[in-house]
Amino acid sequence: MSTEGDLLHTVTADDISDRRRATGRALVWGSAALFFGLALMQFAHDTDRTTLGFDTWRPVLFAYLLWATALCAAQVIVNGEKGKRTLFVLPAALFVISLVVFPLLFALYISFTDWNLASLNGPQPNGWDNMRQMWSDAFYWNALKNMVYYVLAVTVEYVIAFGLALLLNAQIRARKFFRVVFLLPLMLSPVAVSWMVGKSMLEVRFGPVSRIVREMGFEPSFFGTPEIARFMIMAMDAWTFIPFMMIMLLAGLQALPREVIEASKVDGATGWQSFKEVIFPLMLPVSVTAIVIRIIFKLKLADIIINVTSGGPGGATDSVTSFIFREYRDRSNVGYGTLLAMVYLVLIVIFITLLLKLVSRFMERPA
Amino acid sequence: MSAVFKDHEADRKVRVKWWTSRIAIYTALITWAIICFFPIFWTLTTSFKLAPDVMKGNMIPWWDFTPKWKGWESLGLSPRLIGEVSTVREEFLKRFWNSAIVAVSASTLAVILGSLAAYGLSRFNYRFGFMRNSDISFFFLSQMILPPVVLALPFLVLYKSLDLLDSRIGLILLYTLMVLPIVIWIMRDQFQGIPVELEEAALVDGLGIWGAFIQIVLPIALPGMVAAFILSLVLCWNEYFFAALLTATDAKTLPVMVASQTGSQGINWWSMAALSSAAIMPLVIVAVFLEKYIIKGMAAGAVK
Q1: Which residues have a Cβ under 8 Å from the Cβ of A271 and sit 6 or more positions away?
Q2: Alpha-carbon gap, residue B121 to B114, rounded angstroms
Q3: How distant is the Cα of A30 from the closest Cα of chain B, in angstroms?
Q4: Residue A109 falls in which region: left (phi positive, over 0), alpha (psi -120 to 50) or beta
Q5: Residue of B nearest to A58 (CA)
C-alpha cells in the first residue's frame, strides 16, 4: 500500500463560507463548554460545595455524547469534503480514546492510593507504599512466574495445531465434518468448559477421566499437586484455543503456492523433507502471527482458573489476572490491585514490543 | 522410480505405504475429533442422567441408562413443565436474554465503528497531530494487548458514578471496546482486497465518498462483516471477567450464572449439565451452520 497520498482521490471544489465555519466551531466549543460546565457543577455537588446538581454523573455523560456528536458534525461543517473523510475514523477513535485513555489515567491515580472499598475514607494517596508491598508480595511474583509457564505452553499448542492443520489439509474425506468438530471447543465459553471438563469430567469420584486413571491403577488427583494442577489448567486452555491457531495455520497452508510443493516433490523430496525445507519456512510468517496473537490471548487467561481452582493449590495455578480478580473480589483492595494491574500492563507492553522486534528482525534475515 | 504395474513388487510396496498413511491420518483425525467432541457429549448426556447413572458412570443413552428430564426440569425446561409458570425458567431466560442482547448489540456496534475506521484507514491518508495512518492502525490494534484487569477497576468506579453499574449498556460499551481491534483487523484486510477502481467509477457517476462506500463497497464486503460479527459474537457471549465484576442482579449474563452455580457445594450434576448445555448450545449451533464465516474471519489477516 502506498504511503503517500490517498488511495482514493477525490477532487471537490469546497466552497465554505465563513459563517458556516463559525457555526461549526461554535457547535464544538458550545457543547464542550456545556460538558465542562456540567462536570464542574457535578464535581462541586459531589464535594458538597453546592446543592445544585444531579444524583449521578449521567447527565455529564450525555453532555459528553453531545460534544462528541458535535465534533463529528463539525468536521463536515467546517472542513467539507475533507471532513467527510475524517468522519470514517473519528467515531471509532473517539470511542476508544474516551473508553481507554481516561480510565487508564484514572487507574494510574488509583494505583498510588490506599483505597479499599470497605474503608469509608475513599482514596488517599500513599506514595510508593503499594509498590513496596508489591515488591514483597510473593503471591504476585508467583503469579508472574506462572504466566511464564503458561506462555511457554503456547509452543506445545502450536505444534499440535500445526499437526492438525496439516491433517485437515491432507487428502481426506469428510473434511468439512472434521473442521466443524475441531472448531467446536473454541465456541465454548471458558466458564462452561471449567464445569464440563474441570469440575465434572475431572471430578475425582465419578468423572470419566478419573475412572480411566483408576483403571490404569493410579489414584486420580488432578488439582492436588501444583505441577499437575498447572498442567490441567494448561490443557483445558489449550483445548479451547488450539482450534484458533489451527484455523489460522490451515488458512496459511491453503494459500501456499502449489507449484513450489510440487517442484519439491519432483526433485524427490520425501514427505518430511518437503515439510522441513519447503512448507515450514513458507509458513513462518503465518506461524508468527498465530503465535503472537495466541500469546496476547494467553496473557489474559483467567476465567478457567477463577472457576476451577481459584488459584490453588497454594497459588500454583494463579495467573496475574485471576490473582488481581481475587484481590478485588475478596479483599476489595482496589488501590493495591490496580497497581498490580498497571505493573502487569507495563510488563506486557515491554514483552510484546520486544517480541515483535525480535520477530521482525528474525523475519528480515534471509533464510 | 520403477514403473508401477499391478501385482508388481513395487506396486505392492506403494499400496502398503499408501494404506498405512491413510490409517495413520484417519486415526489421528478421529482421536482428535473424540477429544473435541467428548466433553460436549458428556455434558449433553449428563443433563439427562439421574444420580445413580452419574455414580455408575453410565455413558450411552438408551444403552446403559434411560434418559430422564430431571436436569432440564431444574431449569423449568422440560416437556412436563414447559406449560407451567416457573421461576427458575424465568431466571434462566432473563440471563439468556441479557447475554443475547449484550452480545448482539456490542458486536453490531463494533462492526459499524470498526468497518468505518477500517475503510477510512485503507483508503485515505490521515494526519492527527503526529499520528499517521500506520500509527492510527497501530493505536487501534494495540488495544488488543490491553488486559481486562487494567480496565476493570476504573470502569467499576466510572460506572458507579454514571449509574451504569449492573446495566446492559455498560457491558455493551465495554464489549464493543474489547472486540473493536479484532473487527478492525479483519475489516482492514477485507477492504484492502477490494479494488479502488470500483469506487472511482462510482465517484465519476456522481456518488459522494459515503455514497460509494454504502452502495458499492458495503455489499461487496458483507461476507467479511458477517465473519467479523460472528467472531465478535462468540467472544462477547463467552465473556466472563467484566460481567462478573460489573453486574450484580439485573444485567447478569449467562456465564456469570453458570459460574455462580459451580461454586455451591455438592453440585447437582444433572442441573449443572443442563445449564452448561443450554449456555453452549447457541454457539455450537452457530459453529455448525456458520462455520464458513468463522474460518473466514480468523483466516483474514493471518494470510497477507
Answers
A1: none
A2: 10
A3: 22
A4: alpha
A5: B162
- Take residue B244 and report the three cell numbers written for it: 462478573
- What angle in degrees, to the nearest 10, is found between the helix axes of B133-142 and B168-192? 140
ipTM of the complex: 0.87
Nearest-by-CA chain A residue for B290: A180
Query: Which single residue is written with the C-alpha cell 472486540?
Result: B179
Closest CA to A215 of B170, B250, B57: B57
| Domain formed by A143-364, architecture | Orthogonal Bundle (1.10)
The cell for B185 is 483487523
pLDDT tens string for chain B (304 positions)?
455 556 677 778 888 888 898 899 999 999 999 999 999 998 888 888 887 777 777 777 788 777 888 778 877 777 777 777 778 888 888 999 999 999 999 999 999 999 999 999 888 888 777 788 888 888 888 888 888 888 888 888 888 888 888 888 989 999 999 999 989 988 988 888 888 888 888 888 888 888 888 988 999 989 889 989 998 999 999 998 888 888 888 888 888 888 887 655 556 777 888 888 888 999 999 888 888 888 888 777 666 5
Where does B87-299 sit in CATH, by number?
1.10.3720.10
Over its C-alpha atoms, chain A yields an Rg (Å, rounded) of 28
Residue type, A232: M
Q: Per-domain residue ranges for chain A?
A: 18-110, 143-364
Among candidates A5, A88, A192 on the partner chain, residue whose Cβ is nearest the Cβ of B280: A192
Residues B147, B153, B156, B159: is their CA dihedral positive or negative? negative
Note whether B236 and B102 are within 8 A (CB). yes
Q: Does B206 touch chain A (CB under 8 A)?
A: no
* Closest by CA position to A299, among listed A146, A164, A172: A146
Per DSSP, what are the bridge partners of residue B131?
Answer: B128
Angstrom distance (rounded) from CA B128 to CA B121: 12
- Distance between start and end Cα atoms, chain B: 38
